[in-house]
Amino acid sequence: MNVSRRRFLQGSTAVGATLAAPAVLGGGEEPDYRIALVGCGWWGGNILHYAMETGNVEVVGLCDVDRRHLKQKQKQVQEGTGDDPALYGDYRRLLEEQEPDIVICATPDHWHPLITIAAVEAGAHVYVEKPVSHTIKEGRAMVQAARRNDRKVQVGTHRRVSPHNKWAIKFMKDGKMGEIGMVRIFVHSSGRGWQSAPNQEPPEALDWDMWCGPAPKRPFNPKIHPRGFRQFLDYANGTLGDWGIHWTDHILWWSDEKHPQTVSSIGGRHLRDDNTTAPDTQTVQWEFDSFSAVWEHRHYAGNRSEKARLGAYFYGEEGIMHIGWLDGATFYPRRGNKDPIHKEPQLRGDDNHNIPGLWADLVDSIEKDRRPVCDIEVGHLSTNLSLLGMLSLKLGRGIEWDGEREVCVDDAEANQLLRREYRDPWEYPEV
After folding, report:
1. Contact in structure between 187 and 310 (CB atoms under 8 Å)
2. Rg, the chain, Cα only
3. Other Cβ atoms within 10 Å of 19 Cβ, number
4. When you count CB atoms within 10 A of the terminal residue's CB, does the N or C end of the chain come out lower?
5. pLDDT for 289-325, tens place per residue?
6. DSSP letter string over 329-394?
């Protein structure tokens, strides 16, 4: 953003208040940031709500290819703050006409790179949802664009500000589990909602061509929009690219590693017979210098027979740490005569996440000119673990990964999958 448009918070107490107790909506004070939301669905509305809750923003623009979502979010803003944001179907016009200070990008995954890059090049800081990209080279282009334009980009891996997750990571970093040799991350769901739906004409309020954007354009299907896109591989990377990114992030957060040496994955569509395309069963193994990590997901057989249906288990010399979601985090000592140590979750809102803390950290990073806690490169590296797992699954074999150069070693076939061709007239963001 232009320095002349940038209205900084006055003093450290403003940031502290944002972290501790959000202000009442529409507090009436001069706003510090002009913000815009691109992607006005359910999750974008969550992020927008918490940004407005701080009381120090003006919502100047909303953008979505579905006019129904635009109208819903326009009403949310008008009732929440009294702002009357301009409405757009094309993010490029929004950036040009409104010049926001911060852009929230909460679109389907395949749109994250182009919107984020355009926003930072227009001078805005960005809050972009995870995973940062659909392919690995897009993510690296996002990192370079943020650095080149000196903008802060926060990724929505909000567990980095969640108290029980932070407690568990610190517990392990402090050496209280001894050496850790293996990590298992997983999500098991119950298997409901597999019915197919026939292709049909898109709703009149939806610009389907723009929704598909740089990705392949296929016939509209109500299983894709709204909210179903993650199970269609043209637009996302399945459960590993959705839930998995939160837990791959825990692996790098705890270990301070940046990348594995080898990756292998198996899986497929063993039980699902609907018209989605993502695997219903998948395991991935990442081999690092001093430990192994494994992912597993199933779209079936998630029930109370297993103690936890999602999260991360860290296996160390002195015991096991489980980091979950609604169940908090628990360390189970190796010796049976010692009681487990448990940290209850502290979650916010109906969505039971910690978006307010992540938004506050982005604002603080802007004020103090530092990297945000979920900086774009942090998000890129964690996203890479998911994308490499999907790459191995598509190849049907393992790969050796050179994380410094971000290429598969002596593997032309695999390296072709680090990017993909964009649909005209969109241009792939070259590194």
Report:
1. yes
2. 21
3. 16
4. C
5. 999 999 999 999 988 889 899 999 999 999 999 999 9
6. EEEEESSTTS--EEE----BTTTTB-HHHHHHHHHHHHHHT---TTBHHHHHHHHHHHHHHHHHHH
389 token code pair: 């797992």
Name the one residue in this structure whose structure tokens are 């016939």.
Answer: 219
Which residues are within 8 A (CB) of 377 and not within 5 positions of it... i.e. 6 or more apart?
Answer: 143
Q: pTM to 2 decimals?
A: 0.92
Q: What domains are defined for the chain? A: 3-160+353-375 (3.40.50.720), 163-347+381-418 (3.30.360.10)
d(CA 386, CA 391): 9
172 neighbors 254 (Cβ within 8 angstroms): yes
Contact 48, 73 (CB under 8 A): yes
Q: Which residue has the tokens 């219903």?
A: 280
Place of tokens 């692996």: 251
Residue in the structure block whose two tokens are 């940004």: 51
Tokens 């953003």 label which residue? 1
Q: Amino acid identity, residue 346?
A: Q
Please name every residue paired with 342 in a beta bridge, in sequence order, or none if there are none.
330
